[in-house]
Amino acid sequence: MEQVLIKKVEKTFENKEKKQSFTVFDDINLTVNPGEFLSLLGPSGCGKSTLLNIIAGLDQATNGEVYVGEKLIKTPGSDRGVVFQEAALMPWMSVIENVMFALRKKMKKEEAKEHAKKYLKLVHLSKFMNSYPHELSGGMKQRVSIARALAMDPKILLMDEPFGALDEQTRSMLHREVQYIWEETKKTIVFVTHNIREAIMLSDRIVLMGTRPGGIRKIYDVTIPRPRVITSPEFVKLEEDIMSILGGEIEKVMREEMGDDFNSKKASLLYGTNNNMGDNI
Ligand SMILES: Nc1ncnc2c1ncn2[C@@H]1O[C@H](COP(=O)(O)OP(=O)(O)OP(=O)(O)O)[C@@H](O)[C@H]1O
Is residue 207, in this structure, part of any structural domain at all? Predict the structure, then answer.
């Protein structure tokens, strides 16, 4: 268990050709507590992935610092495991070989095999360890990619919309799976999502990010006892609270993207809380 400290982080992208720069956010301050499950939630383009990539060391902050424990983060490291929306498994390797590949520099082959088996068991894929990626469903591939990240025994697990491409049923199953993994391994998890219900279902805290100017709008403590039920009154209440702020953020993005074509009635029809997919922003 380790804490992540994000101190005055700014990210500006330079477009050298157009001689323009674009600041995604300019002053993010946040502490992710050891063992915490924290979600970054916000409209498209607010910088969730950018912030996660900076924590991962895959991208650098323009200003400010990120620490994992005492360590200043500049590059990727085995203390942080990353899971992306696409599992990116090597198609010519079996499931167990994919997990072992990540361990090749860390341990000998036999030890790596035992280690990989342990993590495949944790994600309930022991039966499929000799299968190949094309033989697996999308949800199973994502479980392999979670096992691969966990096998490195990172202190922090960073997840960027890991279930974004999956159907609703598979997503619910993986919510249970990831909660089980979190409880078993006691990892600190930072989880990026568009989906309000997903954030409420999984998180200890939800960091709601906004755009133009980008930054943290509000932080919610989710105190609803687990396992959580989406129809419970406290769940619905929190969903409405979050949507009331997010609605304004989404409208801002749409206004900017659509210019004169923007029509707030159209926006509320598309993104209102009453439709079934209102949780998915
Ligand atoms: N390499 C880059 N160069 C220039 N601009 C970038 C680059 N990467 C991201 N951006 C811009 O930074 C902003 C934040 O992007 P980011 O992907 O972090 O947002 P997000 O909140 O994760 O969005 P989404 O939910 O749609 O993935 C966007 O406006 C994006 O266009």
Answer: yes
